[in-house]
Design goal:
The complex is a heterodimer of chains A (about 350) and B (about 210).
Chain A: H1 2-7, H2 14-17, E1 25-29, H3 36-50, E2 56-60, H4 66-71, E3 80-82, E4 85-92, H5 95-106, H6 119-125, H7 130-148, E5 162-166, H8 172-205, H9 207-235, E6 241-248, H10 251-266, E7 271-279, H11 288-307, E8 312-317, H12 326-337, H13 342-345
Parallel strand pairs in A: 1-5, 1-6, 2-4, 2-5, 6-7, 7-8
Antiparallel strand pairs in A: 3-4
Chain B: H1 2-21, H2 23-38, H3 41-62, H4 69-122, E1 129-130, H5 138-145, E2 153-154, H6 156-179
Antiparallel strand pairs in B: 1-2
The chains are: A alpha/beta (about 350), B mainly alpha (about 210).
Chain lengths: ~350, ~210
């Protein structure tokens, strides 16, 4: 049987935490309530602990401020190091705050007829997909800064080894991942059109001032096009980007995970790890309910072993309390490196630190 | 000219049948039969794949998703992959199909209306039936012969009118005899004598409760 064991992949995320790993982008995602934030924080913490000389960034666009809750520390749109783990920084992008800033910066002004941009006031307050767009803009910023780091002027800018995304619980994640290819197509079409009609548009805009703005816009769009193309390339490179699915061992969660994996594969994004959370491991339990639920979870775990033979399946235990605060997250995240053994490790269930 | 009588009758009956069934239905059935018979490879491929899809769906519905999750998911994966292939194939076949169906429809139109117009032109003055003298009143004879043949005979126009009316009447009869909805026989009400008193209905006076 040992031959068969060798064929299956290790039930841990060691391949991500290895020093040889070249991953730049790690997405952690799954349906709501399965422990995405706990998992993404755990992954980020273990990465940071395994490579103390490198910098890591954990980004969340969930407006519910889940990273702040998880670490017990206030984060915002500026990356801030985690207290107790200096090489890990967190960033919480709040779409509504961003839109407020945009408004004040660009002086869209009062809703008066003379300023045509004032319609933006109403539009920007609730654009669907704004969270994806914002995360995407962050990604673009970092790609650009990576290229800019060759420039000695930017030496003091922080260069993150890997950026971990705690994705939104809805299907928006997939739309966000689709953005690069969609944008690339859009932008190429746009430059095609502007190439043909550019001079005409210049005339319509009228005057030298209009012409300059046009050129400016065009060159900016071309810049964006190049960056988006680069992002597309990086997201489809399995050495640079990977997606970690988080789920629980129940039918609907597994079904959603399967759909997520199929869709990710259609975007050519590498997905090779599944974290299964909230497992009971109650083989010798006194509690009948735990025993019964564990039996159901085992059933699905066996099915998953069959279905996801070429995936890393990481089995995480359900602990006695919520996992909040750096110390608790460190304790929990050890099982991402060394698989949880219910006989040896079960003491941890009731060893979480609590505030009271 | 008996052959003209028969041919006209046939053509008009066929035209009626085509209208009844519908040009779209007929042309698509003809096209599908042609494809099946002619051994078109792409179509045969599509047919196999569609059969496989139905098969997989049957298997999927037969098992419990929760009890045999792995098997169910594997069937799902196969189904999704096949569905993609089927959609691609159908897209490519659709173009040729549209062209062929249009051709068949045109053919049907020509077959049902062409001969009639041809005969109308070529046999304008042909007499199809000689009526025995005095069989119908002269007004009827006039309309039967209108507009191109002599009175007392029936030409193409009159014959077509007769055939059309006959088909319509037969349709009416068959529809109402065979395909009409059944109507329930109404219940018999008592046709009693006026003198016989109807039994009084139960008293519907409200019972007034004593208020204490």
């Amino acid at each position: 049987m040992s031959e068969l064991d060798d064929l299956s992949l290790d039930p841990n995320l060691q391949h991500i935490f290895d020093k040889e790993s070249t991953l730049k982008w790690i997405f952690v995602g799954g349906k709501g309530g399965v422990g995405k934030t706990t998992s993404s924080c755990s992954v980020a913490i273990r990465l940071a602990m395994a490579n103390p000389d490198k910098q890591y960034l954990l980004i969340s666009t969930d407006p519910a401020h889940n990273l702040s809750d998880a670490f017990g520390q206030k984060f915002d749109k500026d990356a801030r190091p985690v207290e107790g783990l200096k090489n890990l920084s967190c960033m919480e992008i709040d779409p509504s705050a961003f839109m407020e800033e945009m408004k004040s910066q660009n002086n869209f002004g009062e809703n008066d007829a003379s300023n045509p941009l004032s319609i933006m006031n109403d539009m920007t307050s609730s654009i669907p997909g704004i969270d994806e767009a914002l995360s995407f803009m962050e990604v673009m910023k970092h790609i650009k800064s990576q290229n800019a780091n060759d420039n000695p002027e930017n030496a003091n800018k922080v260069d993150y080894q890997t950026i971990i995304f705690d994705t939104a619980p809805t299907g928006h994640t997939l739309r966000f991942l689709q953005l690069p290819s969609t944008l690339e197509v859009l932008l190429s079409k746009f430059s095609e059109i502007s190439g043909k009609f550019g001079p005409l548009l210049n005339n319509l805009m009228g005057g030298a001032g209009g012409g300059d703005k046009q050129q400016d816009m065009l060159s900016k769009l071309q810049d964006i096009q190049v960056t988006v193309g680069e992002i597309n390339k990086q997201f489809q490179d399995p050495d640079l980007t990977t997606f970690v699915c988080v789920c629980i061992s129940e039918f609907l969660s597994l079904y959603e995970t399967e759909r997520l994996i199929q869709e990710l594969m259609s975007y050519n994004m590498d997905v090779n790890s599944i974290i299964v959370n909230q497992l009971l491991f109650s083989d010798e339990a006194d509690c009948k309910r735990c025993a019964s639920r564990w039996k159901m979870q085992k059933k699905y775990l066996n099915e998953m072993n069959d279905l996801y033979e070429d995936f890393h399946l990481i089995k995480m235990p359900l602990l006695g309390n919520e996992i909040r605060g750096l110390n608790n997250l460190v304790k929990f995240s050890q099982f991402l490196v060394n698989a949880y053994d219910p006989k040896k490790d079960n003491h941890i269930i009731f060893e979480l630190e609590t505030k009271d | 000219m008996q052959w003209l009588l028969i041919i006209t009758l046939l053509v008009i009956s066929i035209k009626y049948l085509v209208n009844l069934v519908g040009k779209d239905v007929i042309s698509s059935k003809v096209y599908q039969t042609y494809l099946r018979v002619s051994g078109n490879k792409a179509f045969a491929n599509l047919h196999t794949k569609k059969t496989e899809l139905r098969d997989i769906n049957k298997q999927r519905l037969a098992i419990s998703a929760q009890d045999q999750y792995a098997k169910w998911t594997k069937l799902n994966r196969r189904w999704d992959k096949l569905k993609k292939e089927v959609d691609e194939l159908e897209k490519t076949l659709l173009v040729t199909q549209a062209a062929a169906i249009n051709a068949i429809k045109t053919g049907l139109t020509v077959v049902t209306t062409g001969p009639i117009w041809y005969y109308r032109v070529m046999h304008r003055k042909s007499v199809l039936v000689h009526l025995p003298a005095g069989l119908f009143p002269s007004v009827v004879e006039f309309y039967l012969s209108f507009p191109t043949v002599a009175r007392g005979t029936i030409g193409l126009g009159g014959w077509m009118f007769i055939v059309n009316t006959m088909i319509d009447s037969m349709e009416l009869i068959i529809k109402n005899l065979v395909f009409a909805e059944k109507v329930e026989k109404p219940k018999e009400t008592s046709t009693s004598n006026e003198e016989e008193k109807k039994p009084q209905p139960a008293s519907i006076e409200p019972k007034i409760q004593e208020i204490n």
